[in-house]
Amino acid sequence: MLIFIVRRLGSMLLVMIAVSLLIFIVLEAQPGQVATKVLGPYSSQEQRDIWMEKNGYSRPIHERYVTWIGNFFTGDLGKSTRFKQPVNDILWPRLGNTALLALLTMMLVVPISLTLGVLAGMREGSSTDRSISFLSIFTTSVPEMASAPMLAAVFLSLLGWLPGTSGFSYGHPLQSLDGFPWIGINWQTVPELVMPVLVLVLYDFGYVTRMTRASMAEVMQTHYIRTAVLKGLPYKRVIVKHALRNALIAPFTIIMLQINWLLSGVIVTEYFFAYKGFGALLLEAALNQDIFVIEACAMVAVFVSVTTQTLSDVAYTYLNPRIRFS
Amino acid sequence: MKKVLKDESGKRIHPYVPELVNQLRKGEIDRREFLRTTTLLGVSATAAYAMAGKITGESLVAPAQAQTPKKGGTLRASQRVQRMDDPATYDWVPMSNQTRAILEYIVVTGNDNVTRPYLAESWEASDDLKTWTFNLNKGIKWSNGDAFGADDVVHNFTRWLDPATGSSNQGLFSAMTEEYDTGMKNDDGTAKMGKKMSTGAVEKVNDTTVRLHLNRAVLSIPENLFNYPTAIVHKAFDDMGADLSKNPIGTGPYSLGDFSVGERCQLKRRSEAYWGGEIYLDEILYLDHGDDPNAAINALESGQVDQVFEVPITQLQRAEGIKDVVVYDVVTAQTAVARMKVGIAPFDNLKLRQALVAATDHQKLLEVAYFGRGAPGEDHHVAPIHPEYFALPMVKQDYNRAKALLAEAGYGSGIQLTLDVNNSSAWEVSAAEAWKAQLGPAGIDLQVNVMPGAQYWDIWTTTPLGLTTWTHRPLGVMVLNLAYRTGVPWNESGFADAKFDALLDDASATLDINERRKKMEGIEKLLQEQAVFMQPLWRSVFTAAHKKVKNFGAHPTAYHLWHDLWLDA
Question: Does A169 contact B299 at a Cβ distance shorter than 8 Å?
């Protein structure tokens, strides 16, 4: 097991280095382009020359890469060309906001999906199974770019129940309380979280439900479940004691992968509701070619992706000892 | 000896002012032009209004307000919240809006497009428009208690014109600069030249008087001083780190509160009395809703904000339908030009450029891309609202002429061209697509290459054919000097014409608005004949605010002049 983990970590590091090299070459191969981004489109060539000289951009690319990656690992992510602030000051709060969105989404998606998936898979082909399958396929088929304006049309324009944007108009939803060591909830901002969470839950729960259903249905066909039923064990006990444990292994991996999706795949939702998250930051950075923010976001996204993948592999192996690995 | 004209207080009056009075009396210029030009020449707004009032009989005093302003409250506005480091390097208007309540300008160009003194109490221009003297208001204090004065203004000019600052003000005040050897070499080994402030360009006359010495006549010095990167910072700004967000010392009525780029900018009314008069709002809060215009309108509809930076034309109908929200529109000189790089093939071919313009129906472009809310473009970049605008006959679409010109250009069997367009304004993409449809029947296959704004701004001066946004400027000559004079940094088309430059020099040094207008005829015709660009339209600009926001007015450049706003909560 230890060798497996070490190997996984090694390949994770290799992927990170390869990606960092690629990102650096794409974004910083031409020093003139970096100077233009930092100083803006109206800067003169003279101003750009001065900047490049001053910031070491006259050195060969491999030297610059070594400096950059060294800075990166010591926590110096550079300065945003758009915001003119250290990337650290922008990136981590945004990541925290997206983590909050992801947490709220997962808190709803996991119980709903597992419950519905198990219910559907328990009796494959029943009316319950067909109803749940229809609902989950329908919601998953509607992309966020459609569900977001639809929900806004209903809850904002038609009913006027919910605010139209989620930019924390009344402050961050989690606020430290004066004189207390814990964090309190800013209830004024909570309504702003409802629509983005709803959009993500609607899109995601169907997929996890379908996966859970498939896994449960497969387990229900196995010999040991049939034996347990024929042996006369109560149905409830068969499900809870014997079926569930095995049926939830596959959904676990799927849920782990959803964490990755919730980090960088929520761009549409964050953009539509002006939510100050990591996805919106990544999009804005890409559109504005905010070089150092793109580099940092890309590295974080890759890190989260390979980490969740590795964790998922390790956990899967732990949960299912039948799996052999080389 | 030349007689010096003085007003009742003994202050020198520019010799052209009596002529303006005459022209107003005869009806040769209207009241608006009179106010604009007299204030530009240093007459105080009060005196100018008084003179105009005596002649036209119109009241000097604005109509009495129906309600007494109420103090207090927070105005919540939706706009991008951007960096607030060095105002001299600002490149977007929202940055200046965040700053405008903290830092102030020597002058202010109001919603009516008239420029008035602000930190300066008055100014005077020499007859040849090469020497400008600014008399600063006395008794203004910075928020750290220091007295505001000439040293601050001199310091600002000095840093604007220092190439190391990287300010676009260097181009704006190019008449105060000279060339110098940067010490670096061009690829061909020649010395790389730069521009820096010319010796003696700015002079401190005394603690409250500053004089500018230009190397050529410039009419628009006061207007330039309200261009958004010209906010006046404290003389110790650079010593304090040159970052306003970290040391928000200003002369304005507000101080910086909670500030987070991309999220919020809170401006709190200072406790001390404001030197410029009564301030009603307790707080202005800018909230960032991203680049999606839909989000800002959603925020307005759900009451999360009281005002939005701009209502794009695509959202206009929706905004007009929101309860208790008032949509304001303002006629502007904002536009976009499909400019051709005249030195690069195939656009070095005049006949081809003329063919492109001949195949264009500007009125249709206005209707399709902007629902008719503006004015059709005339391909000379002088707007009907510019005081020196000369009305030429409208250019009509003529396919026969376009085909003939195309054949003469050597493209009788047609040509394929690519137009680069940035996607930040939906109307520009619509205009490009509509133009493509218009050019087709003439045998021109236009490919529209839509790209993100940042990508376009990388190539805006180099692409052979690109649709570039140009913002409003109060005078027509200002934009022509920036965009079409030979060799200037923003001359994106590479247009170089000695005759045009000479005509522009002449017009730029002509005070008489009627004379200047006559001179603009030649300039406008020359640009049309040379077909340097196709200009689809002039656009009106829209903003919206809740009806409780009083004294609100839309500015043609979307500048927020909010000192006298109040909330009828």
Answer: yes
Q: Is the pLDDT of residue B508 over 90?
A: no
Cα–Cα distance between B531 and B409 in angstroms, integer?
Answer: 14
Half-sphere exposure of A254 (CA within 13 A, CB side): 22
CA atoms within 13 A on the CB side of B283: 13
Question: What is the per-residue pLDDT across A211-247, written as a single tens digit (0 to 9) for each?
Answer: 999 999 998 888 988 898 888 888 888 888 888 888 8
**Spatial contact of B224 and B173, defined as CB atoms under 8 Å apart:** yes
Q: Which helix (H) or strand (E) holds B466?
A: strand B465-470
Nearest CA in chain A to B303: A163
Contact B298 A165 (CB under 8 A): yes
Contact A36 B85 (CB under 8 A): no
Does residue A87 contact residue A300 with C-beta atoms inside 8 Å? Answer: no
Calculated CA dihedral for residues B364, B370, B374, B375, nearest 10 degrees = -20
For residue A326, what pLDDT is reported?
Answer: 47
Identify the three-state secondary structure at position B368.
helix
CA-to-CA separations, A180 to A46, A97, A183, A187, B43, in angstroms, rounded: 54, 22, 8, 17, 61
Residue of B78, B90, B260 best to disrupt the A interface, most CBs of A under 10 A? B260
**Local structure of B251: helix, strand or coil:** coil
CA B467, CA A311: separation in Å to the nearest integer?
50
ipTM of model: 0.76
Cβ contacts (< 8 Å) between A167 and chain B: which residues? 263, 287-290, 295, 299, 304
Q: Where are the beta strands (DSSP E) in B471-557?
A: 533-534, 537-546, 549-550
Question: What does the alpha-carbon distance between residue B104 and residue A130 come to, in Å, rounded to a whole number?
Answer: 67
Residue A207: CB atoms within 10 A of its CB come to 18
Contact B165, B89 (CB under 8 A): yes
Backbone φ and ψ for B22, nearest 5 degrees, come out as -60, -45
How far apart are alpha carbons B254 and B236 in whole angstroms? Answer: 19
Answer whether residue B533 shows pLDDT above 90.
Answer: yes
Q: A167 vs B287: CB contact, 8 Å cut-off? A: yes
Share above pLDDT 90 across residues of chain B, in percent, rounded to a whole number: 68
Residues B143-196 have pLDDT tens digits of 999 999 999 999 999 999 998 888 888 878 989 999 888 887 877 888 888 889
Report the chain A residue with the minimal C-alpha distance to residue B285. Answer: A169
Nearest CA in chain A to B492: A42
